[in-house]
Amino acid sequence: MNTNIENISDTRKKIAVSFDAAQVASETQKITDEFVRNAKVSGFRPGKAPKPMVEKLYSKNIADQVERSLTSQSIEALNGIKDFDLYAVVDVKKDEADGGVTLTFTADVYPDVKLPDSLETKVELESDEATDEEVEKAIEYHRNQRAKYDEVSRPIVKGDFVRLAYSGKLDGESLAQILSEMPMFGEQKSTWEEAGNADAPGVQGIVQGIIGMSKGEKKTLSHEFPKEFPNEKVAGKTAEYEVEIQEVRQKNLPELDAEFFKAFEVADLDALKEKMRQTIKNEKKANNEILKRQFAVEQLMDKTDFPLPESAVEDERHSILEEMMMRFMSSGASREDIEKNKEALFESAGKEAQGRAKMRVFLNRVAKANDLKVDNEDMSRMLWQEAMRTRTKPEELIKQLRKDPARGNRMRADALLQKAINFIAEKAEITIKKA
After folding, report:
1. Are the C-beta atoms of 125 and 432 separated by less than 8 Å?
2. If 415 and its partner were Cys, which of 104, 356, 375, 382 is the partner (CB 3.0–4.6 Å)?
3. pLDDT tens-digit series, residues 407-432
């Protein structure tokens, strides 16, 4: 086996690995013998079919297996070269001549990363103590979660929940047509609004204008679209909406009584406040742990600069675009909407991909420099996390990983990065911001 490496860039290489005729013949013979021993041929017991028959029946399978074996040997040899740290194989081409085989790889390698002299950082975090105001807000949140909505016949007041229908027009043209991609601003046959809610995402002219109306009443309300509205046909213009009230409900919060306390397994208001305080503290503590890890890694990364493997950036861009597509689709966006914003999405994903790729490479180098290894406990933790994320039973996930070794390798790589983050976070010096 002969190997020749050509530099394309700091992180991309072209590698030609050559096997002479004798090596190829030896590998072919070995794999053919395996097929002879295990192949199922009609009329013959396993291992008893004539070799020429097996070679003819399984010629393509044998050739494919030989190529896979030579590729595997090549990559193993590349990984054994000093100072050659393979990141990913991008492409493989095969050439045959005089019984020999040359495999030409286009591959990305890890860059030479000069790590900071020290991995110690200083991180400032907010206190994890809960304020009285936060406790009160938490209690009100839970009261709102348990609120009852009772139908009323009086005029609408701020805070009522109102079921209504509306249809908008701008200069006589239907908004349902103009804003077909945003039906919330065009027409609704039956929808709910909280009267007077300034933070409501819908048509504020309606949200505010329905105050004082009653069930069954119809009214024309106006709404001024902001100048920055994403549709230029309506941006900065005032539209008219025909509104009909279908139902009015008053929100009634539960009393802070024994029944309410029982739901939280506490005896009284003081005990409830203490429980809320501890819950908030635990949430802040967990969030601070995330921020500590994030800030510590970012501080160290800001001290380093290095070229990124092209495939690392492309892999991250692909993942980010998939995440974006899922978010858009779940929010009700159509494929046409996504297509219209394709260039902007691609540009945004590209910028984020650079940061993610840099972090992956940096953490990998930290792990290597500090001889961090993934053990069975790390993989078990990663397995449980993946099972929870994909809502798959752990035993089913294990079966999937056996069929897809590449997925298992990605999980192992992620586990190593998590270990590097933990290693960095443990060295962080924490100070609490003064109130």
Report:
1. yes
2. 382
3. 898 899 999 999 999 999 999 999 99
Whether 216 and 337 share a structural domain: no
Residues 280 and 355 occupy one common structural domain: yes
Residue 342 lies in a domain: yes
Instruction: Identify the CATH number of the domain in which residue 278 sits.
Output: 1.10.3120
Q: Residue 198 — left, alpha, or beta (φ > 0 → left; ψ -120 to 50 → alpha)?
A: alpha
288 lies in the same domain as 415: yes
Distance CA 58, CA 35 (A): 8
From CA 88, how far away is CA 309, in angstroms rounded?
9
Find out whether 319 and 414 touch, Cβ atoms under 8 Å: no
| Global pTM exceeds 0.90 | no
What does DSSP say about strands 148-151 and 238-252: parallel, antiparallel, or unpaired? antiparallel
Structural domain for 51, as ranges: 2-109
C-alpha torsion sign, points 298, 300, 306, 312: negative
User: Do 238 and 276 lie in a common domain?
Assistant: no
Which residue is it, tokens 């380093």? Answer: 304
- The position carrying tokens 């001290």 is 303
Residue 391 dihedral angles phi and psi, to the nearest 5°? 55, 50
- In this prediction, residue 361 carries a pLDDT of 96
Residue 137 makes CB contacts below 8 A (sequence gap 6+) with: none
The count of structural domains within the chain is 3
- Give CA–CA dist 215/63, Å, rounded: 78
Pairing state between β 428-432 and 121-125: parallel
Q: Does 370 lie in the same domain as 274?
A: yes
